[in-house]
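Allow me, if you will, to draw on your knowledge of protein folds for a short while. The matter concerns a single protein, recorded as an amino acid sequence and a row of backbone structure tokens. Could you please explain, in whatever detail you think fit, how the structure tokens follow from the sequence? I remain grateful for any guidance, and I place the record below:

…
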Amino acid sequence: MYDRTIRRRRLTLAALLACSLLLLTVFFGESNGGALHNVQRGVFSVFAPIQEGASTVLKPARDLFGWFGDTIDAKSRLSELESSNEKLRARAIAGSEALRVNAQLQGLLNLDNAGGLAAAKPVTARVIGRSPTVWYSTVTINQGGDDGIKTGNPVINSDGLIGQVSTVSGQASIVTLISDGELAVPARVSAGGAQGVAQTGAGGADDLRLKFIARRYRVEPGAAVVTAGTLSTTPGLESLYPPGIPIGAVTKVVDPGTDAQKIYLRTYADLQKLEIVQVLTAPINGNRR
């Protein structure tokens, strides 16, 4: 019974194939006015309006499904783009941070080499806190006594002197900045050699001055001021600061050539943008000139 059914299906399939081949042969062999061509046109004319109506009726549904599909694709693409943008932004920020820190480290290395400060056993540190005052007179760094830092050690950044260590714990230290009025740094004018003291006046952080310059010395705006180093040969009076560390530039001189002359400075270091600093933990030949 099963075999007969299979044979009938095969015979039916073969007959249908033969009829199809015959119809195709006749269709392509006859002229456009032939019977089969007329039948095709008739069927088309009957079903074309139905097809058009169905297409019109189903168009909103197709558009709706298409809108859903496009929206899902767009959201997926947007999510991919946002993820890609976040990664690119993170890389750009990381690259920018690395470049800025590298520039500061390179500046410190240049200053160490040019000023002979490598012998002062510099310890590199990062600023991790600032005093809650408008002048930022102190900052906290992430290195301390465990790293060889002691109270009184000079602190520099890539632009020059920024202050000295005032408090030390095992793994952190507080640095008093040169903008603090309590800090007085022996200094000299680099070009003429006039000796004085760099100290902030009563006007606060923007009132850094070079004091005690004798009136016979004429100091011009733009002159560079550096640390003086040790002047006295008396033991125990060694300077805390090695000589020649840049401090700042003279901005103006009031009443020049008189005992009342006031010499104003601007620090080379931007004290409100400190990130990477170095603590000089050892004196250089008694910090002598």
About this structure: The radius of gyration is 44 Å. The chain has a mean pLDDT of 78. The longest helix spans residues 35-115. The CA atoms of residues 120 and 284 lie 6 Å apart.
